[in-house]
Structures are given as structure tokens and as C-alpha cells.
Amino acid sequence: MKKYLRFAENYILLLGCLTLGLFLLLFADRSGGVSETENRTLQPFPELRADAVASGRYMEEFENYLSDAFPARERMIAVSNALTGVFGRTDAQEEARRVFDEELGMIDDFAPEESAPVSAAAPKQEETLPAAEAKSAALWVVRADGTVKNIEQYTPETVSHVASVLNRYREALGENGRIFLVNSPASDVANDVLDTHRYADWGYDLDEAMQPLLNRGVKIYNVPRLLEPYRDEGALFSTSDLHWYVKTAWRVSNAFVEDLGYAPTDYYDYDYYLRDTIRNGPYTPEQLKDMTITRENLMVPRILSPVTASCITGLTQREPTEIYNFRQHGYTMYLGGAKGPYRLFETGFHTGRSALIISDSYAFAMAYYLFPYYDSILQTDLRNNNYNLDLVGASIREYMEYYDVDDVYIITCQWTSINGPVFSWRLERFLDAADIA
Amino acid sequence: MVFSSMTFLLLFLPIVLLLYFLAPGLRGKNAVLVAASLLFYAWGEPVCVLAMLGSTAVNYLCARAIGAATDARRRKAACALGVGVSLALLFYFKYFSFLFENVAALLSLKVAAPQIRLPIGISFYTFQVLTYTIDVYRGKVGVQKSFWKLLLYVSCFPQLIAGPIVQYADIEQQLDARTTSVEDFSTGIERFVTGLAKKVLLANLCGAVVEAMPGAAASFAGAWYHAFVYTLQIYFDFSAYSDMAIGLGRVLGFRYKENFNYPYVSLSATEFWRRWHISLGSFFRDYVYIPLGGNRRGAARTILNLLIVWTLTGFWHGAAWNFMIWGLYFGVLLVLERTVFKRVLDRAPKALRWAVTFLVAVVGWAIFYETDLAALGGTLRAMFPLGGTALPFCDAASWKVMRRWSLFPLVAFVFSLPVVPAAKRLLLARGGERTAAIVRACAVALLFALSLVFLVGQSYNPFIYFRF
User: By the 8 A CB rule, do A2 and B437 touch?
Assistant: First the structure.
């Protein structure tokens, strides 16, 4: 009897698997979507094509679809993150918070090695500005009771190191080239500051600490200061997908545009798509009830002229891609999602200049507002999942030279902080190398 | 296809098992298995399936020729042809580019090596089919008249891609007559679930930690931590696959031999290799070491034979110099254990022997990990900063990872020791059969559910041994 019960358990387990599999195959939503938790596009049901089957791409996409369409997926990810957190890893937000709050102190002990691993492309010692000249900096909030909480701290060594990396990028550009750096607070920090019951103020002084170390043509922006005049207008950043709203992106973009010597284009000179918030949008009706958002915060800017978009691999190989992907939700609908390693947008404007945007997904909404000022914009994301080393085929410097880049925008947020690996060595490493070997 | 994938777990496996058990007679069941195995392989490697079919067909014909040959010379020629073609295919797909690159470098030629796609599992199925042809030649097994049965032996999906390397002699009878009892089914599924959990909950998380490290050569502590976690990852990853393969084989009526036996409890390198990848060790023992003369031709020849076997073992793992160094590293250690250190080892306290053996394994895996020789040099310099080094004791980036993942490697390490069998014994002794059965049922359900939960969100999921 006992052995039959044991058999029944295993039989039911297999039957359950089959039922779930058939459900996913026959009844699940096949349109894909976006995972706000993971910050990525979900796989729609793949189209069956002979070439995709022969190359194995169909199978890969099918597997991704089954995983991405899994019932209660976001909840399961939350559970797995929570369980993993027991042993040391937490989900993205918690991890970032913990790093900011608890671990940065440790960097002081090992600061000289922060840019490890040592690589052939690492700057020579004499190219790094002396740490003694650099000052520490921070992003902080002032609580309602007047106490200050540091959200992120930057040691003098980090400031010096990042400045040296930015200066190396500047050297790689032509005489009139510019480097723009934005290291934005995360959306929840930014939106918390709006809660005047909890926080009275916020501040950021990385720009003051770093600017003296930067060469001509390199500028770092102070996002809290840029957005300070607009705090009364309600949410500046999305409360659900970790990014800033389109209007906030436009405001920050204007700072770039003004420094380029142009007059910013009016926000309403752009045409906008309106995201469908109920059927296919990033927010559920329940979420919307609790959110202070206006209609304009659900708008997606429409490009002012015909723009062609290509996915670039191996420096020269182009494959057409979309600029908007309305099958996706949230930020991944911009710029065709997160296809990598490079994307090239040829704008149809004739300005005689080209730009490279090195960014995380914070730049997605901003890029549209930069289109009118460039002939072409190359965009890449150095994070692990997006910067495919098998496909990139050349160093950033080679991409800059090949696409005749005049200006470089480096747009990050707390999640891909200048304290993190992107700045500590990826940005530095990949300037002159195509891989990490 | 990967065992720890949704496609396999939710569609392929249940459907194949359903068809398998519904199929009438062994002939029908074998047909289902061959079709399923080819689909399983083609799912990931649609074109490369031809290489496997070709290798099987050639060896089938050669074995038939061996059986039909009347004189020894023809038998030998047929065997040599089968072995030669299989090894030539393996050489072409796995080693040609490597040889080309090295020859070009030696002659200072600026020619790009051809990019040849390595068919998954070619090292495994090539060795399997070799055991058939060689054993037919040796008269150890009979000639398989049915091509489909031979194809089933080579391609049977549980062990096709990453072993264990099943010798034909071990399975010959089961191709013609096998049954699955209720007990087999349950034990097989439970073993599969255990392997799945090992892969998803332990190996993949170890892999995430290894991935998170900035590199193995950043600092002394970073290099050792990296090597330690990779040591755990490779064990859980590979032994998990073997668990799943053995479990699935059991469900289908096959009895595969064990491939791992808690290698990290070993007290010597020799013992370690009796417990690690047992089927590969058996293959090299039966088909290389013993034919070379084994230990029967004097001490010097034994040493030479060992070094040959271990160089080949290293090279079997991949076309890169580090694998050869890794093989030689163990070859030399085994020779030293047999000769110089035998007495010392016999007298040393067990704890010391265990610690040294474990360190030897960790260093071995550090060599195994770095396929680039310059990077390997960096790693070894970081691990052994003899004569001083400019590297820090611990770098900030590694320290961040180590702090964040301080507990998990220790928990994983505990699970690499035979704690589960000990717990089972304890439970059976204290709680009796009924309690043990309830706990086991709950554990299986929980492990499966947890594996699914983790699989849904895990992007890092390849099996390390697939690339061999």
C-alpha cells in the first residue's frame, strides 16, 4: 500500500507538470509583456520559422516563453528572492539599499583596489588623478526631524577614479567633444522625498566633488538640484517601474541641450502616445487608485521625424529593430526594448553631430528628447545581461571612432551606481577591450 | 534540451513518459525512446544530430563487420575504422580549431582558426559508442543486430548529453529486456527531483556567486573564495545531472551505475578520483590504462601510463591548455601519492589528509576554471602570493560579494558532504518507516516546488559539463 501511495505522489507530480505545460501552451497570454521586478522584456510566444528552428533560436525563445508566461511569475520571483535573501542575496531594491546603507563603509578599507580586476586596459597610474585632490561626496536625504541619512556615499578614491575614467573618454573624442554624466537617485528615493511628512529635503554633491577633477568638456549633473523646482508637482519618478517619468526625463535632457548651446524643445512640441493603463499598461487599476499620477505621466513621446533603428553587433552588422514596442509595458516599450549590445538611431535631423549614450534603462525615455540634436545616436547598456560579449566584437573606442561619435552621455541611476561594477571596471575596461579575457 | 528547463519538465518529460508507458511491448517503448531522444538532442542542436547519427551508423557497421570477419586482421581493421572515425569526428569538432590556432601561433601565421560548432555531449556519446565497438572486438559483448537498439544505447536522452558514460556491456541486456516496477518509477522520480533541486537550488546559486565575483585574480581572498565556490558549483552541477540521468534511467527501466560518491570527503587524490566522475575514470581504466599495461610493467611504466591517462583525461574535458595542465596536475599528484607520499599519507591524521585533499581539489578546479593561460597565471599568483605580490589581501569588489554571500557557500559545502544519507538513516532509526516515508514525500514535493519557483526567475541555468 505504502509503495502505491509513493507511486501516486510521483504520478500526480508528473501529471501536474503536464497540466501546467499544456496550460502554458494553449491558454497562457502569448503576447509577452514586461517584468517590472526584473527590469526586462518578457518573451512572447515565438513565431515558428524554419530558420529560427535551424539556428536553435526558436527553442531558446520557446523555453523563455514557458518560463516568462508561468502563472504568478512575479510572485514566484519574489519568493525565490526572499528565500535567496536568507543566504545572502536579496532582490534588486533590497540589495541596493543594503549596499548603500551598510556596505559602502567597507570600501574605505579597500579603496585603492576598487577598480579591480587589473586589466590591460586599466589606466596607468599617472593617468589617475591623485586621490588627495578628490573629496568624498554623497547623496542624502534630510528626514523631517532634521537628521540626515546618507543614501549613497562616494569615497575620494571613487570620485577620483570615475573622474579619470570620464577624462579618458573625453580624450577619445574630438576637440569639441562632450561627456555628460547623470547619476540619478532611484525612483523610490526620489519619490520618498516628496513625502514631506518623512523627508524635508535631499541633496547631492558628487558634481561639486568631481567637477574640479574633470577635463574641459566633461560635465556631471546634479539631478536633485535640477528637479528641485518641480517637487511640488507630484511624482517625478514612476512608483512602479523604478524609472523616471517622461516629463522628468525631458527636464533632465534640457540641461544637456542647454549645455550644447541649443534652446530646449518645448515639452508639448512633442507628440505623445498615451499608454493604455487598463488593458495593456504597466499599472493595474488597483495600483492606479493609490498613485498620484497624471495623464501626462503615462505619455510616451512620439519622435519628431522619421527615425530608423538598428541593432548593431560586431561593430558593423546591422539588423533593423523597432523604436517603439507597444507589445511591451513600461520602459521597455521605448527604443525597442533592451536589444543589444548596441542600437543605432539615425534621426533624420541634420546637425552634423553624433552621440553615444552609455546607460542603464534610465536613458530610455531621455533618448527621444536628444534625437533632434543629433544625426545619429548610438546606445549601449554595459550591464551583464545587455552587453553581450559574444556579439559586441569591438571596444567602445572602436565604436566611437567607427560611428564618428562627438558626444558621450553616461546615464546611470543608483542601481547601476558609480560605486558599482559598471563604473568600477566595465566602463573602464570596455573602452579599449571587447571582452573581459 | 536541459533537464532543468520548463520545456523539459512541463512538456517533454511527462509526454514522453506517458507515451513510453502506453507503448505496447518493448519494441514500441524503444521506438518512443529513440524518437524522444533524437528530439531531445535536436531541440538544442538541430544540425549536430547528424554527427551523432553518423558516428552511431559507422560503429554499427564496423561492429557488424567485426562479427562477420573470419580472420583477426579484418576484425582489427574494422575495429580500428570504427574507433578511428569516432575519434576523428571528436577531434574535428573539439580539437581542430585548437590545433590550428596553436600551429598557426607556432609558425607565426596570422590566420584565423575556423569556428567549428561543438556538438553538445560529443565527448560522452563518442566514448559510449567506442565501448561498444571495442567490446565487440574483444568479444566481451555480442554484435547488436538492430541499428535502432544501438542508436537507443547511444542517444538515450537521460545520459546523452552529460553522462554518466554508460558502457555498452552494462546495458546490453536492458536493451532487450527491461521492466519498470512501481518501486523503480517512484525511486527514479525522487532521484530526479533530488538532482533537479541540487542543480537549481545549489549549483545555480553557486554559479550566481561565481558570476558576481569580479574575477579570480583580484586578490588573495577573492581568488580563494572564487575557487571554493566554483568547487561547490561544479560538484553540484555535474552530480545533479548524474542524479537526474540515473533517476530517469531508473524510471525507464535502465540501471546506470553511480557517477559520484561524495568526492569532497576523500582523504587522498586517488580516493577523490574514485568518487568523482566514476564513469569517466572507469572508461580510461578499461580502455586506456589497462591496454597500456596498467601497473603490470614496472614502476616507471606505471608512472608513464598514469601520466598519459591523466593528460588524456584533462584533454577530454576541453581543447585548452588549462585542461591539460589540470589533468597533469592530478596525474602528478596521483603518482606522488603512490610513490613519495604514500607513507606520509598513511600516517597523517585523517583531518589533515582530508583538508589537504580538499585544498588540492580546490586548486584543481581553479586551474580547470580558467581556460586562458594568462588569466590562469594571474589566478594562481593571487592564490599563492609566493615572493610577494602587488595584489591586496582582499579587494573591494570581491569583498562585497563575499559579504553578501558569506553564509550560502558554507550551507552548500555542508550539502556536498553525505549529510542527507546520514539524516535519512537517523530519521529511519528514530522515527520509524512511517515517519521517514512522510518526511520523504513532503521533501520531494517541497524540493520540486522550490525548484520550479527558482527556475522561473533564474536566468543562469546551463550545465557546465555540456561543453565537454
Answer: yes
Q: Are residues A73 and A134 in the same domain?
A: no
Could you tell me the CA-to-CA distances from A240 to A151, A408, B211 in Å, in that order? 20, 29, 28
Q: Give the residue among B278, B365, B362, B370 at the shortest CA–CA distance from B321.
A: B370
Tell me, yes or no, if A49 comes closer than 8 A to chain B by beta carbon. Answer: no
Measure CA B222 to chain center.
27
Please state, as a whole number, how many other Cβ atoms lie within 10 Å of the Cβ of residue A247: 18
Q: Are B272 and B357 in contact, with CB atoms under 8 Å apart? A: yes
Q: Is B226 a catalytic residue?
A: no
Q: Which of B94, B191, B226, B317 is catalytic?
A: B317
- Contact with chain B for residue A70, Cβ under 8 A: yes
DSSP, res A244: B
Residue of B nearest to A6 (CA): B186
**Does residue A281 fall inside a structural domain?**
yes
The cell numbers describing B80, all together, are 580500428
Q: What letter represents residue A391's amino acid?
A: L
Q: Is residue A54 part of a domain?
A: yes
Residue A57 inside a domain? The answer is yes
Residue A108 lies in a domain: no
Question: How does strand A376-380 pair with strand A148-154?
Answer: unpaired
C-alpha distance from B11 to closest chain A C-alpha (Å): 5
Q: What is the DSSP string of B270-299?
A: HHHHHHSSHHHHHHHIIIIITTTTTTSS-H
ipTM of the complex: 0.74
Taking contacts as CB-CB distances below 8 angstroms, the residues of chain B near A15 are 14
Q: What is the largest CA-CA distance in chain A?
A: 84
pLDDT at B416 over 80: yes
Is the CB of residue A432 less than 8 Å from the CB of residue A397? yes
**pLDDT tens, B112-132?**
777 777 788 888 899 999 999
Q: Which three cell numbers stand for residue B258?
A: 553511480
Query: Are residues A89 and B208, on separate chains, in Cβ contact within 8 Å?
Result: yes
Dihedral (Cα; B59, B63, B69, B71), 10-degree rounding = 90
Q: What is the pLDDT of residues B92-111, one digit of tens each?
A: 988 888 888 888 888 888 77
Residue B294 sits at the vertex; the CA angle it makes with B291 and B300, to the nearest 5 degrees, is 125
Residue B333 to chain A, least CA–CA distance (Å): 29
Residue among B230, B223, B213 nearest B385 (CA): B223
Instruction: Answer whether B466's CB lies under 8 Å from B238's CB.
Output: no
**With an 8 Å Cβ cutoff, are A10 and B448 in contact?**
no
Q: Which domain holds residue A28?
A: 2-86
